[in-house]
C-alpha cells in the first residue's frame, strides 16, 4: 500500500510525541513527515535534527504534498486555520488533536473533507496514551484509514467512540491522570511526615502505583482487587471507611463533572 505523507500544523508537545512515535515505531510505513510552526524557529530546527522531519514556516506551501493533515494547534486557533484550509484541501484526511473540536465542527468548516478527531493524553510522550478517537460522516479511503491508525499506534492504545462519548470521556482519560498525580503527591508528602526521605518516598509511591496499575491491567476488576487488599475489620478497611465517610467516590465523580462542564463552556 502507498505510504502516507503527514503534515503537522503546529509543533507542540503532542505533535512531537506523535512524530517521535512514528519515527520509533512506524518508520517504514510513512513516506514523509512535514512540520509547520510560525512562532518557534528553534523548535522546528530541533524537530528536524532529532526526528528527521521536514520543516516549513508556511504550511500552505506543503499542503498539496500531504495525504493527511494533523491540526496540532490550540482549539482557539482552529477557526482561522479552517478558513485557510477550505480553499486548499483536495482530498486530504484532516485530523485534529485539540479538545472540543469534534467532527461536527470540522465538517461544518470543511464540508468536502474526510475528518477525524483524536484525543490523546499526557502518556503519549512515552507511547502509553489511552487515546479516544472518532471519524466524521465521510468514509475514509484505505490510505486515510492507514494514516489514522499510524497516528494512533504511534502514541499507545486507542478506543473508537462517538463524538458525544469523547466529550464526556476526555475528563476520564485526559484530565484524570492529574488526579492520580495529585494522589501520588499526597502519599509522598505523608511518607515524608514519617521521616522518609523524598527520594525514597517517590520510589515507594511510584512503584506502588505502577504495580497496582499492572495488577489492574492483568485482572481488569478493580472491585475484586480492592476486596483482596481489604480484610474485613483490618487496617485497610479502616482507611477505606474514612474515604467513604468523606464521600471519596462522590468527590471524584464531582471532579469529572466539573471538568466536562468547563470543557463544554
From TrEMBL:
Top EC group: oxidoreductase
Annotated keywords: Amino-acid biosynthesis, Cytoplasm, NADP, Oxidoreductase, Proline biosynthesis
EC number: 1.5.1.2
GO function term, MF aspect, one: pyrroline-5-carboxylate reductase activity
Main location: cytoplasm
Pfam family, one: P5CR_dimer
SUPFAM superfamilies named in the record: 6-phosphogluconate dehydrogenase C-terminal domain-like (SSF48179), NAD(P)-binding Rossmann-fold domains (SSF51735)
Domain Pyrroline-5-carboxylate reductase catalytic N-terminal: 6-100
Subcellular compartments: Cytoplasm
Domain Pyrroline-5-carboxylate reductase dimerisation, chain residue ranges per copy: 163-263
Pathway(s) served: Amino-acid biosynthesis; L-proline biosynthesis; L-proline from L-glutamate 5-semialdehyde: step 1/1
Record's catalysed reaction(s): L-proline + NAD(+) = (S)-1-pyrroline-5-carboxylate + NADH + 2 H(+); L-proline + NADP(+) = (S)-1-pyrroline-5-carboxylate + NADPH + 2 H(+)
Residues passing through the membrane, by range: none
Alphabetical list of PANTHER family matching this protein: PYRROLINE-5-CARBOXYLATE REDUCTASE, PYRROLINE-5-CARBOXYLATE REDUCTASE 1
NCBIfam families: proC
Function, as annotated: Catalyzes the reduction of 1-pyrroline-5-carboxylate (PCA) to L-proline.
Family that this chain belongs to: Belongs to the pyrroline-5-carboxylate reductase family.
Name recorded for this polypeptide: Pyrroline-5-carboxylate reductase
Organism expressing this protein natively: Metabacillus sediminis
GN (gene name): proC
Amino acid at each position: 500500500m502507498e505510504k502516507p505523507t503527514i503534515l503537522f500544523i503546529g509543533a507542540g508537545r503532542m505533535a512531537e510525541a506523535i512524530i517521535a512515535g512514528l519515527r520509533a515505531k512506524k518508520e517504514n510505513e510513512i513516506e514523509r513527515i512535514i512540520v509547520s510552526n510560525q512562532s518557534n524557529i528553534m523548535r522546528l530546527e530541533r524537530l528536524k535534527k532529532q526526528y528527521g522531519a521536514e520543516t516549513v514556516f508556511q504550511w500552505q506551501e506543503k499542503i498539496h504534498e500531504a495525504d493527511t493533515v494533523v491540526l496540532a494547534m490550540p482549539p482557539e486557533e482552529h477557526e482561522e486555520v479552517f478558513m485557510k484550509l477550505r480553499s486548499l484541501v483536495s482530498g486530504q484526511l484532516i485530523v485534529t488533536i485539540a479538545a472540543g473540536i469534534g467532527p461536527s465542527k470540522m465538517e461544518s468548516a470543511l464540508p468536502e473533507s474526510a475528518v477525524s478527531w483524536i484525543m490523546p493524553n499526557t502518556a503519549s510522550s512515552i507511547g502509553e496514551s489511552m487515546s479516544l478517537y472518532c471519524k466524521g460522516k465521510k468514509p475514509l479511503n484505505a490510505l486515510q484509514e492507514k494514516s489514522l491508525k499510524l497516528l494512533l499506534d504511534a502514541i499507545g492504545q486507542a478506543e473508537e467512540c462517538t463524538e458525544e462519548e469523547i466529550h464526556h470521556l476526555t475528563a476520564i482519560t485526559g484530565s484524570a491522570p492529574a488526579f492520580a498525580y495529585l494522589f501520588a503527591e499526597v502519599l509522598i508528602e505523608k511518607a515524608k511526615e514519617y521521616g522518609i526521605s523524598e527520594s525514597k518516598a517517590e520510589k515507594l509511591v511510584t512503584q506502588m502505583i505502577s504495580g497496582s496499575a499492572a495488577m489492574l491491567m492483568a485482572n481488569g476488576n478493580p472491585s475484586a482487587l480492592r476486596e483482596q487488599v481489604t480484610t474485613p475489620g483490618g487496617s485497610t478497611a479502616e482507611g477505606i471507611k474514612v474515604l467513604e465517610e468523606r464521600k471519596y467516590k462522590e468527590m471524584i465523580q464531582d471532579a469529572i463533572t466539573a471538568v466536562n462542564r468547563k470543557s463544554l463552556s
